[in-house]
Amino acid sequence: MATIAATVLLAISGVSTGPKFPCLPGGLKPSDIVAAQRVGDAQKLRQTTVQDTLSRIKARCEDGKLVDRNQREIRFYRVECFGAPTNYAIETTRRQAEELEKLRERYTVITMTCTPDGLPRP
């Protein structure tokens, strides 16, 4: 009986017991890293998660889609990183820039790092 009362109380108060963003695209978790960087003398790692980013932009689920505060759909894009500027790397970087430009015309795009550990790639 107490469980039913608690569930009703949570429903009335608007507090959710489920995940904050149940409409995240498949394969993506709130704890996934969007950005990472080494900071300070000790090179402490500062990571920004999907959850942090979505909260910052006041995202929410609407009709099964993830949208920002302006009701613009959100898309995630993980960039590829390269060390040496090979022809493949240059072409891939150019292609990624074109894809991102097109996506940004229609969606709010969250670009995800290729280095979640915050270490520079050789």
Topology:
Blueprint: H1 2-13, E1 33-39, E2 44-49, H2 50-56, E3 60-62, E4 65-67, E5 74-78, H3 87-106, E6 108-112
Parallel strand pairs: 5-6
Antiparallel strand pairs: 1-2, 3-4
In short:
The chain has three helices and six strands, in the order H-E-E-H-E-E-E-H-E. The protein is of the alpha+beta class and 122 residues long. The strands form three sheets. Strands 1-2 form a two-stranded antiparallel ribbon. It has a two-stranded antiparallel sheet with strand order 3-4. It has a two-stranded parallel sheet with strand order 5-6.
**Unreliable stretches, pLDDT < 50, 5 or more residues?**
1-18
Structural class: alpha+beta
Distance between the termini: 60 Å
- Average pLDDT metric: 82
Helix-strand sequence: HEEHEEEHE
Tell me the radius of gyration. 19 Å
Strand order of the largest sheet: 1-2
Shape: flat
Number of strands: 6
What's the tally of helices?
3
Overview of this structure, please?
32% of the residues lie in helices and 24% in strands. It has 122 residues and is of the alpha+beta class. The strands form three sheets. A two-stranded antiparallel ribbon has the order 1-2. β1 (33-39) and β2 (44-49) form a beta hairpin. The protein has one domain (19-112).
